[in-house]
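[Meeting: bench + compute handoff]

Bench side (C.D.) handed over the final construct sequence. Compute side (W.E.) agreed to return the predicted structure before the next meeting so the bench team could plan truncations. Sequence as handed over:
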Amino acid sequence: MSPRYAVIGAGRQGTAAGYDLIQHGHAEIVVLADNDIRQAERAAQRINKLTKSNKAHAMRLDASEPDQVKDVLQQERIDAFLSAVPYFFNLGLTQAAIEAGAGMTDLGGNSQIVLDQLALSPQAAEAGVAIVPDCGQVPGMGASLVVYAIEPLDEPVDVLMWDCGLPQQPEPPWNYRLTFSIEGLTNEYYGDCLFLRDGKLTKVPALTEVERRSYPEPIGELEAFTTSGGLTTAARTYQGRLRTLQNKTLRYPGNFDQLKVIEQLGLFDPEPILVGGLDVSPREVLHLLWDPQIRADPETRDFILIDILATGRQRGAEHQVEVRLIHSYDEVTGFTAMEQATGWHASIMTAAIAHGHVPSGVVPVERAMTGAAFIEQAGQRGFNVERNIR
């Protein structure tokens, strides 16, 4: 029987995921649910046009009301769904998934919320429900490619990852275009990263440890620095097996200095401050001012890059494994590279849940699928992942 899916949040990433669930997830139906019914209708219409089907259906649904979500999941007999709404809804949606008996994935990104979701694993397992947080480009696809990078090694030791989603033609002053929620972006620039250093879980502040990296033209030189949320579960999963595990975000040169000014002004801080007798969140002010300046328009052509270097031993000899993915805007479907990488990684995991390939419980993304299995699925979607072993 074909699975019944839902996507909660009919924005860019949710639309891409809904499309892929029909194209490759053998969907009977995909419910596109959003608090803005017009957004849901536009997403469903676009998906049905691209897939030449009528399997995408629009619905109004408020992600902040878990009981309402649970009722819809049960009424629509949903096998698995994707949360494509901002990270702060995910804990409530996890509880709704467990109570409804529906599998779930989300786009994650906030370390504490993911840890709170993992704490619900016994409840999910008892309900026979599989939940995989932190899907998307990174942590999601990045974590899956880390698995792929270390699979050839008998004894992996150090794993370094760099990643980005950037416009192909940068425009000053920001040289950056945003193709997902502003809440997800600013969350990456605040708080601590969880890495493995000398085999120990180590908290490293975001927006530190800047370095330069060179890539083949037309990409050229980029700068890399720490951002939070990229390895929340992977650092814990590989503690005791790896000496080093870390990731850095790549940007065009000059972006790091801009972000440090924003940080020093306190504008990434979510905690309200008193302004003219009113409590005002600096981060919300930043969202209002910054989002219109960096928001990608439909004509923006972008690319994503995930670059991994793993070192260790194979049959007693030292080896290096390099894994690299560079993927661009799709002229046929109109999906950006970020929409594809984020939405399609999540749809791969959502379909795996619906087809019974993920065990019950809240499962870290790096445990949900082998690297080889993910590469097979990624290849079907046109992702060309290169792996070189030396």
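W.E. noted at the follow-up: The longest strand covers residues 155-167. C.D. will use this when planning the next construct.
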